[in-house]
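Justification of resources, computational component.

The compute hours requested in this renewal are based largely on the per-chain cost of generating structure records like the one below. Each record pairs the submitted sequence with a full structure-token output. That output is archived, and it is also reused by downstream analysis tasks.
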Amino acid sequence: MNRYYDLNTYFQSVFGCRVHKITVDAGFTCPNRDGTISRNGCIFCNSRGSGTGAYARGESIARQLEAGKQTLARRFKAKKFIAYFQAHTNTYAPVDRLKGLYDEALAVADVAGISVGTRPDCVNDDVLDLLQSYTNDHMVWVEYGVQSARDETLALINRGHDFACVRDAVKRTRNRGILTCAHMILGLPGEERADMVNTARQIADLGFDGIKLHLQYVVAGTALARMYHRGGYQCLARDEYADLVCDVLAQLPPHMVVQRLTGDPHPDELVAPMWALYKQKALAAIKARLEERDIRQGQYTGG
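The structure output for this chain reads:
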């Protein structure tokens, strides 16, 4: 029994073949880094903003995608690919520049769509019009960094926007043929189980098409790392995280695509918890807990 709607199953249903996302770094920055909102960033984010450094090394979008295609085709027999613009805020530029980058990605053979990671306060109607223009011929996802529905938490992590901003962004994205994915972090400072369950419910109510769940791990050089070293933050244990994932999945509608159950910290940057480096063990713990508790996605939604 498949207890949640995973990304591979979704891609297979749409394309009829193995599809993989390829992470690309387009050299964006973030309003929470360049002084527009703040220069400090979110407390969990370092200066790389989850980037690979490929842009700084002079690698074009097309080159990054071609390299990714070779690896994924060889390892997973992937036939089609989604270009995932991940590092920092990937709508934070003039529309003409965005169009050039997105066009370059979609011109690469076997790239069937784009997925654009961004903040809900960085998607104006011109950007949405551009993304909508691709939807007749390509799959288009916008991945919004929600993190939490609790405004006190968003302020604590120096997010720079409130949850009302998320509601507005999703409302303006709806009915454009653009798929929406929410990023949600489990284990944020000051949050209890009830807060995380409430965030899952709010995400479900907003009608997101997909979700990515992330463990709050501590990365070197961040404000969260300084908080951790002072004793002001404690990471989740693996079993705690597995239980929370179960709680969240039960709140999500069955048709919502679960794109990720946990993240992938860089080994050279991770401060804690060290169990986060062993992703397959974490996934096994989650799946075992789903079985033990007899939990499935949508269980508490009537789905």
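The longest strand covers residues 139-147. The chain is about 35% helix and 15% strand.
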